[in-house]
Structures are given as C-alpha cells and as structure tokens.
Amino acid sequence: MVDVDTFLTTLYVMVDGPQATLSRSEVVTLALFGQWQGFGSERGLYRYAPHHLRAAFPQLPTREQFNRQVRQQHAALVAFFRHLVALLAAQHCAYDALDSSGVPTRDAKRRGAGWLPGLADIGWSNRLGWYEGFHLLMAFNPVGVVTGFGFGPASSKDQPLAATCFALRRSPHPGLPRVGAPALGLYVVDKGFEGQAHHATWW
C-alpha cells in the first residue's frame, strides 16, 4: 500500500503532466499558427498538432500545459502582434474598420458565479443569442489585418468599448498595448456604433 504523501505527489505529477519544454518563440509561433489556420478551438489545434507538427515541435506539451504557457507569454504575443502590424504597414490605409463579436466562455444557463466572475457576464449577440462571456472589439484594415483589439464583459455596448479604444489609441497605456495605434484615416463602423453625440465626442 502506498503512503498518502507518495500517492498525492504521484497523482499531482500525473495530473500536471511532464515539465513543459517549449521555448517562448515556439509558444508564440504555435499560438499564432492556431489563429491563422482557423481552428475552431484550442482542442482543434491539439487534434492536429501531434500528427502534423511533431517534427517541428518535438517537445509538444499537453494541451493544458500549452494553454498555461500561452497565458505566460501574453506580453510577447502582444509585442509580436504589434510588430507584425508595423511590418505589414497595416495602418497605412484609407481606413480602419471597427466591429464586435460575442465570445462565450460557458453556457449562459448554468448556475453559479462561473469563470472569471466580475469580468465575464451575460449579454446578447445577434449571432449567439444570450451568452456568458466577453464582448470583443476589433479594428482591422481593408485587407483584413487586425490592427488592435480589446474586450469587456458580454453586457458591454459597442459605443463605450469604441470610446475606450479611441482614448487608449490617442493616449496609450503601457498595460493595454493591444488596442494598437491610431488609424491614419477614418474609422468605418456599423449601426452598433451609431449616435451623433458619440461621433462628435470621438471626433
């Protein structure tokens, strides 16, 4: 019979998996590849990776470890994203378009505080209906290059998110570099951003 300490240690190692060994550049590369390839989820990437990417990433960790490593490399991901935007001269265009989308984090009908209480909440999306999660705001140029993004709780409206985006682009905050730089031209928006008072303030 195994003593309690040995059992708990063994169980913890089995649950946590072997030590993750991907470098920062490998984590950033895999994370961006997963977005570029258009997998529906991180699970989709991880169904693909062991069969097709093992030669390039022989130390591929478990999906849970990769998820933790991506979170740890958030600053590097944002810095590389901004570098790509500059490299592609993405903001040297006639306009930036703004659009928003719902990002569900769990079933809205489940009880309890859920994941990220106080950050995620319940809101309405024409695509999703009622959902629990976040409201994502993205800026992109005419050829589809994302030039910045931000998010708020699902109940957030487009206009306040846009106002925050414009303010941060005009007066950058070191903690929120992902909103990107100001557009060189105009912003194109849909009816979710309507309101003459809002437009006058933003201008």
Brief summary:
The chain is an alpha+beta fold. Helix content is 40%, strand content 20%. Strands 1, 2, 3, 4 and 5 form a five-stranded mixed β-sheet that branches.
Domain count: the total is: 2
Helicity range of the residues?
40-55%
Name the beta content range.
Answer: 15-25%
Which residues form runs of ≥5 with pLDDT under 50? none
Calculate the terminal CA-CA distance, rounded to whole Å: 73 Å
Largest sheet: 5 strands, mixed
What does the radius of gyration come to? Answer: 20 Å
Give the averaged pLDDT, no decimals. 86
> If helices are DSSP runs of H or I spanning 4 or more residues, what is the number of helices?
7
In total, the number of strands is 5
Structural classification: alpha+beta
- Overall shape: it is globular
Order of helices and strands: HHHHHEEEEHEH
